[in-house]
Amino acid sequence: MYNNERDQEEIFSKVLRAGRRTYFFDVRETKASDYYLTITESKKFTNDDGTFYYKKHKIYLYKEDFTEFKDILGEMLEFIVKERGEEVISERHQKDYDKKKDFNIAHSSNNDFSNLNFEDI
To answer: Looking at the whole model, is its pTM more than 0.85?
Structure first.
């Protein structure tokens, strides 16, 4: 089925663009005329010379697995939101947070201006 996949037409498709990642959700048809879902993650990378390429990862999901997949996915999503909230915490966001924290610490604890007298100026 893998070799014939390119020749198969998508029955129904949706795309989710998320920064450097793009997710493709495609309903396809088996040889027995049943439907299955493919979820493809495509991530863009840049070569040193400025050209780019994509790495793709694909999941095939068949109807007999839908219920359990949906249940486990929902459970995992609920766990993540419960444990870490909906705010995105990434390395880039963490670096920005650390810079602000360092700036605030440097300008508050080391330089206590609450006892500043006009005579000091």
So the answer is: no
